[in-house]
Write the structure tokens for this entry.
Amino acid sequence: MTRFGIIGTGRITRRLVADLQSTDTVTVTAIASRQKERADWFASQYGIAAAVEGYEQLLQRDDVDAVYVSLPPSLHAQWCIAAARAKKTILCEKPLAISGDEAEQIARVCAEEGVRWLDATAYFHHRRTVEMRDIVRRGELGQLGHISAAVSFYRPFQAGEHRLDKSLGGGCLLDLGWYAVSLACIMAQSAPTRVFADHTVTENDVPIRTVGTLWFADNITASLSVGYDTATRKWFEVAGSEASLICDDFTRPWLERPTRFWIHDAKGSVTANEIADRQEPRMIETLIGDQPLDEYNQLSVTTQRVLEQLDRSANSGQPVMMSETDTTFSP
Ligand SMILES: NC(=O)c1ccc[n+]([C@@H]2O[C@H](COP(=O)([O-])OP(=O)(O)OC[C@H]3O[C@@H](n4cnc5c(N)ncnc54)[C@H](OP(=O)(O)O)[C@@H]3O)[C@@H](O)[C@H]2O)c1
């Protein structure tokens, strides 16, 4: 039984704690907050034995084998590295960090300490994602041409929202671009060679809408649209020479609907497919199992590098070439 400790008491923590608690091979033994009262409240609500004041105190506990880091993005690297030094297995919320170098450092320290880690992007692990990727790899769409991905939700935000705070790693590019960029890399089976943030709308000095283009080898291109200013979207299309694959909820399946995707061919025939799965428990089992995690880890670091270059592009108004070290992802 792997004993998890939770770092942070935010909104997403509630959902992931329930997923951890419903996974047979896992138990949640402790939760840490900056404030003892908050940890006490959370522990009593969710039936967690220990409420801990301070994240470092949680890392020192003998009854914690693994941690779930659920903090604003600017704090991920610091606490993942501290967790790795304490030899804890790590599940870190996305985005993994706020820069490519930070992401690389997390990966390096975990490797040094022999610690398994994943970022908590659960869609990577859904059986549907694996099947959609394999359809593309098997050439069932013909020659791959263009990928489009759109991820958004419409505000309002609460006061103090980290998504609108630059110092905490806010903005839709890191937050939602994480999904669109990783999806494009998975489907293109590589990292892009060049990126361009064509258009950005900012508020509080963070992007609240970003439109971008990625160029991959073999004339594959991708368009991204992410933002906080349109209703919830979580779709992509992969277009090949013979057919397109479309999924309208790739980051997390819509509630109470079949977990679906469609293949549209050149004559207008549509094949609907359904693959049910529970992506969070599958992610947790993958983390605590013994299968190699290199492919996931490389995808995380590459996604972070691409986002960093998209940010550079947004600031300069120019396309940015990715360097060779930026593009290690090659599944
Ligand atoms: N995988 C997904 O589907 C998904 C969905 C939503 C969000 N996320 C990611 O999860 C992470 C957390 O997001 P969230 O929306 O749950 O955040 P949130 O509700 O704002 O919670 C963040 C927690 O971080 C702790 N914290 C420590 N220092 C802080 C600071 N300076 N300012 C604010 N909070 C601070 C707080 O816990 P204490 O005060 O108790 O210490 C707070 O409850 C983000 O990286 C986000 O992108 C992932």
Observations:
- The CA atoms of residues 93 and 120 lie 5 Å apart.
- Residues 294-316 form the longest helix (23 residues).
- The domain at 123-326 is CATH 3.30.360.10 (Dihydrodipicolinate Reductase; domain 2).
- The mean pLDDT is 96.
